[in-house]
Specification:
Length: 145
Protein backbone atom coordinates (compact mmCIF):
# COMPACT_ATOMS: atom_id res chain seq x y z
CA UNK A 1 0.00 0.00 0.00
CA UNK A 2 2.87 2.39 0.76
CA UNK A 3 4.42 1.54 -2.61
CA UNK A 4 1.15 2.32 -4.39
CA UNK A 5 0.87 5.62 -2.53
CA UNK A 6 4.41 6.59 -3.50
CA UNK A 7 3.72 5.67 -7.12
CA UNK A 8 0.55 7.76 -6.99
CA UNK A 9 2.59 10.73 -5.79
CA UNK A 10 5.07 10.21 -8.61
CA UNK A 11 2.19 9.98 -11.08
CA UNK A 12 0.76 13.26 -9.78
CA UNK A 13 4.18 14.90 -10.13
CA UNK A 14 4.56 13.54 -13.67
CA UNK A 15 1.19 14.95 -14.71
CA UNK A 16 2.05 18.20 -12.97
CA UNK A 17 5.16 18.43 -15.13
CA UNK A 18 3.03 17.74 -18.18
CA UNK A 19 0.80 20.68 -17.20
CA UNK A 20 3.88 22.84 -16.49
CA UNK A 21 3.43 23.05 -12.73
CA UNK A 22 6.76 23.76 -11.08
CA UNK A 23 8.56 24.24 -7.79
CA UNK A 24 6.88 23.69 -4.46
CA UNK A 25 3.49 23.66 -6.13
CA UNK A 26 4.52 20.50 -7.97
CA UNK A 27 5.84 18.89 -4.80
CA UNK A 28 2.68 19.74 -2.86
CA UNK A 29 0.48 18.41 -5.66
CA UNK A 30 2.43 15.14 -5.55
CA UNK A 31 2.06 14.94 -1.77
CA UNK A 32 -1.67 15.62 -2.01
CA UNK A 33 -2.06 12.85 -4.59
CA UNK A 34 -0.02 10.47 -2.47
CA UNK A 35 -1.89 11.18 0.77
CA UNK A 36 -5.30 10.97 -0.89
CA UNK A 37 -4.43 7.63 -2.52
CA UNK A 38 -3.09 6.30 0.78
CA UNK A 39 -6.41 7.12 2.48
CA UNK A 40 -8.51 5.89 -0.46
CA UNK A 41 -6.84 2.52 -0.98
CA UNK A 42 -8.08 0.76 2.18
CA UNK A 43 -11.61 2.04 1.55
CA UNK A 44 -11.57 0.78 -2.03
CA UNK A 45 -10.68 -2.72 -0.84
CA UNK A 46 -13.71 -2.95 1.42
CA UNK A 47 -16.46 -5.09 -0.01
CA UNK A 48 -18.58 -2.89 -2.27
CA UNK A 49 -16.94 0.36 -1.14
CA UNK A 50 -14.99 1.26 -4.27
CA UNK A 51 -17.10 4.35 -4.91
CA UNK A 52 -16.77 5.42 -1.27
CA UNK A 53 -12.99 5.27 -1.67
CA UNK A 54 -13.17 7.40 -4.82
CA UNK A 55 -15.41 9.93 -3.08
CA UNK A 56 -13.26 10.18 0.06
CA UNK A 57 -10.05 10.37 -1.97
CA UNK A 58 -11.42 13.14 -4.19
CA UNK A 59 -12.78 15.00 -1.17
CA UNK A 60 -9.35 14.81 0.43
CA UNK A 61 -7.68 16.06 -2.76
CA UNK A 62 -10.09 19.00 -2.89
CA UNK A 63 -9.70 19.85 0.79
CA UNK A 64 -5.91 19.62 0.81
CA UNK A 65 -5.71 21.58 -2.44
CA UNK A 66 -7.76 24.40 -0.92
CA UNK A 67 -5.45 24.53 2.10
CA UNK A 68 -2.35 24.45 -0.12
CA UNK A 69 -3.81 27.16 -2.34
CA UNK A 70 -4.42 29.38 0.68
CA UNK A 71 -0.90 28.82 2.03
CA UNK A 72 0.87 29.23 -1.34
CA UNK A 73 -1.44 32.02 -2.60
CA UNK A 74 -2.10 30.11 -5.83
CA UNK A 75 -5.27 28.79 -7.46
CA UNK A 76 -6.45 25.46 -6.05
CA UNK A 77 -6.65 24.04 -9.57
CA UNK A 78 -2.83 23.99 -9.66
CA UNK A 79 -2.94 21.30 -6.98
CA UNK A 80 -6.19 19.57 -7.91
CA UNK A 81 -5.47 18.65 -11.53
CA UNK A 82 -2.20 16.74 -10.99
CA UNK A 83 -3.42 15.12 -7.76
CA UNK A 84 -6.81 13.95 -9.03
CA UNK A 85 -5.36 12.21 -12.10
CA UNK A 86 -4.54 9.14 -10.02
CA UNK A 87 -8.27 8.62 -9.37
CA UNK A 88 -9.43 8.73 -13.00
CA UNK A 89 -11.13 5.39 -13.78
CA UNK A 90 -9.29 4.87 -17.05
CA UNK A 91 -8.81 1.15 -16.58
CA UNK A 92 -12.56 0.62 -16.20
CA UNK A 93 -13.28 2.65 -19.33
CA UNK A 94 -10.66 0.65 -21.22
CA UNK A 95 -12.12 -2.66 -20.02
CA UNK A 96 -15.56 -1.47 -21.08
CA UNK A 97 -14.41 -0.66 -24.61
CA UNK A 98 -12.55 -3.97 -24.94
CA UNK A 99 -15.60 -5.90 -23.76
CA UNK A 100 -17.83 -4.13 -26.28
CA UNK A 101 -15.35 -4.87 -29.07
CA UNK A 102 -15.39 -8.54 -28.07
CA UNK A 103 -19.22 -8.58 -28.18
CA UNK A 104 -19.47 -9.05 -24.40
CA UNK A 105 -22.11 -6.38 -23.99
CA UNK A 106 -23.10 -7.05 -20.37
CA UNK A 107 -19.47 -6.96 -19.19
CA UNK A 108 -18.90 -3.78 -21.19
CA UNK A 109 -22.01 -2.18 -19.77
CA UNK A 110 -21.03 -3.13 -16.22
CA UNK A 111 -17.50 -1.73 -16.55
CA UNK A 112 -18.76 1.40 -18.31
CA UNK A 113 -21.38 2.13 -15.68
CA UNK A 114 -18.88 1.53 -12.90
CA UNK A 115 -16.49 3.98 -14.57
CA UNK A 116 -19.27 6.56 -14.90
CA UNK A 117 -20.26 6.14 -11.25
CA UNK A 118 -16.62 6.45 -10.18
CA UNK A 119 -16.27 9.66 -12.20
CA UNK A 120 -19.44 10.97 -10.55
CA UNK A 121 -18.13 10.12 -7.08
CA UNK A 122 -14.88 11.92 -7.87
CA UNK A 123 -16.70 15.00 -9.16
CA UNK A 124 -19.00 15.14 -6.14
CA UNK A 125 -16.07 14.70 -3.75
CA UNK A 126 -14.15 17.57 -5.33
CA UNK A 127 -17.18 19.85 -5.49
CA UNK A 128 -18.16 19.16 -1.89
CA UNK A 129 -14.63 19.78 -0.65
CA UNK A 130 -14.52 23.12 -2.43
CA UNK A 131 -17.96 24.10 -1.17
CA UNK A 132 -17.15 23.22 2.44
CA UNK A 133 -13.46 24.03 2.86
CA UNK A 134 -13.04 27.22 0.83
CA UNK A 135 -15.49 29.27 2.94
CA UNK A 136 -13.76 28.09 6.11
CA UNK A 137 -10.40 29.35 4.83
CA UNK A 138 -11.58 32.80 3.76
CA UNK A 139 -10.03 35.51 5.84
CA UNK A 140 -12.61 37.39 7.79
CA UNK A 141 -12.32 41.15 8.10
CA UNK A 142 -11.08 42.33 11.49
CA UNK A 143 -13.69 43.98 13.66
CA UNK A 144 -13.05 47.56 14.60
CA UNK A 145 -13.01 48.49 18.24
Amino acid sequence: MIRAALLSGITAIAFGLLYQVSGWTLVLAGLIGMIAWWVQAPLAHLSGATLLGDFVGAFLVGALAEVAAKVRQEPAIMFVVPAIIVFVPGELAYKSMVAFLQNRFMAGLEAGLTAALAAGAIAIGLALATALVRPLLRSRPKERE
